[in-house]
Structure formats: structure tokens, C-alpha cells
Amino acid sequence: xxxxxxxxxxxxxxxxxxxxxxxxxxxxxxxxxxxxxxxxxxxxxxxxxxxxxxxxxxxxxxxxxxxxxxxxxxxxxxxxxxxxxxxxxxxxxxxxxxxxxxxxxxxxxxxxxxxxxxxxxxxxxxxxxxxxxxxxxxxxxxxxxxxxxxxxxxxxxxxxxxxxxxxxxxxxxxxxxxxxxxxxxxxxxxxxxxxxxxxxxxxxxxxxxxxxxxxxxxxxxxxxxxxxxxxxxxxxxxxxxxxxxxxxxxxxxxxxxxxxxxxxxxxxxxxxxxxxxxxxxxxxxxxxxxxxxxxxxxxxxxxxxxxxxxxxxxxxxxxxxxxxxxxxxxxxxxxxxxxxxxxxxxxxxxxxxxxxxx
Length: 358
What we know:
eight-stranded mixed β-sheet
């Protein structure tokens, strides 16, 4: 005899909730970069998973810079004040649902509507988390057409923040995306510039640490990949391919799953969600520019609310119209935000370039 669970049976709710959470996050692009430590690209903050509140505040202590006192010099009165900055991630509930047309509709099809509802919501959450990931990292303040003014549905319940001047570069060396033309395609020199800036900024951008090795990560659009591969000059794509074959540093590195390769300590990944450029006056999106983004540790903060988390979204089933129609909803109280301290990005550099379909 087959064991079945009715609508909203407590065991069924727990089972389907876990299925949804595990499958959705497992299929996301950004999940391989998520962890609980300050060495991860996306750091999970879990202070509100068992407490009340809708905001988590976290701090940054700057390095001390004082000269100190030698010998028997007087230290009193020459102390240095601590310099600290803070940032915060806001949490809100986001939900979505599907609803069947009725028992007769179920009769006509060979698949299980409950299972299809699960699969549909898994796909929805997977796409949403990845869209949020890139909208936040790229500082996508030029809202895409599908995003209502002021909405944060697609930006992790937190408004995206445009990069400051110190954390922005482009191929032309100009101040913003507005002047980039066909002569300003991406080259590996941009990665060299990002690495240099990451190491010399105050505070410096800390690499992501994996298996005892330090790596930066750069996300580029597939159009940019074609530009890089088409560059036949010495020290361009061929160097990436050589580095990709390097032994021990590459083996068993989860950050390299699906990567294009490695150059100058930077792992390159391609994704279509890398956002378009924008003209600050407006702001207006520029379809011929892509905002590739260079990342270090703690580029993003991800937080979940009470009883939610990477392994637990809500799952609610309801019957309508005299139990003829089944509705299924899933939700999560969460927030995702790029780290910004003292009005400056903390661990990201936007590296814009001209990029169009070839």
C-alpha cells in the first residue's frame, strides 16, 4: 500500500520545504561561493534565524596607523582612537505561489501537479537568487525593464549601491560607462589593473581562501568571453589556458567548477546575468556595455530570518473551490547585500567594457 500525505500535513510541509530549499540553492550559480566565514565571497549572517528583527548590522575595524612610542617616551596622551565603520543588511519576506486549475486538469495530464509546483518554485528561487547576486555585485542601479521603481524584489530586499570611484574601472579609463565604444573591449590588462587596485586600496580587498590558497574571482558576460578569446595578442587567452592546466592549485577547488580558467590569481566565470552598463544621468541602462565585476572575500552578505535558511524555506498548501484547486506557496525571510563601509565598496571592483553579441 502506498503511503500518502494530505495537504498541509506537518510531515509533508517539512519534507517539501526541505526539498525546495536544497534543490533551489544547489542549482544556483552563487551557492558555491557561500560560506559562514570572513574568507568566503558570500558570507552568511545567521543572527536573526532564532531572534526577532529585520536588520543585521556588522562592522569593520580599520588597521591602526599610529607610529607608537619608543624607549621611555610618554605613551599617555599619544594613544590612537579605533576607527570603525558599519553596514547593514535588511531582511524582508518574499513569496511566490502556483495554483492548479482543478482536479479535472490533473486528470488530463500524466504528471503530478504537486511535484510540478515544487519544480516550478525551485526554478523560480534559483533564478531569483542568481539575479539578486549579480544585481547587487554589479551595483545595478539602472533598473531593468521588469523592475518596478523602488522595488527590491530583484535585489535581495536591499537597494543596490553604485560603485564608488575607487572601486570602478573601465577599459577607456573614464569615470563612467557612458563613453565606452567598440574600441573598448575587455582585455586581461583589466584583470591586472583590478588586482593592483585590490592590493593597494585602503582597506585592501582580501582574496577568497580555498584549500589554503588565495583567489580573487571575476564574473564576466559571455560577450566578454568572446572578446577575450578573439584577442590573439601575446599574453591574452593562451595564458589563461596554460594556467588552467597548472596542477595542484587547480585540483579540487570548488571555485573552479565551471570556470573559464585562471589568470594572475583571478578565477574567471561567465554568466549572462552580468548586468548592462548605465549612464549616471538618469540613470539609463547602456545595452552595449557590461559591468564585469571583480570580487574578494565578504563581497556580499546573505542573511535569513527566523526559521528560514539555506535548508528551510516556507511551504504552504491550500485547497480552494470546495477542495477542487490546489495552491502551493513558498517564501523566505532573507536579505542579500553588497558590503559597503564608509560609503565605499568593501570587496568588489566593477570593470566595465564594451560588449555586444558577435
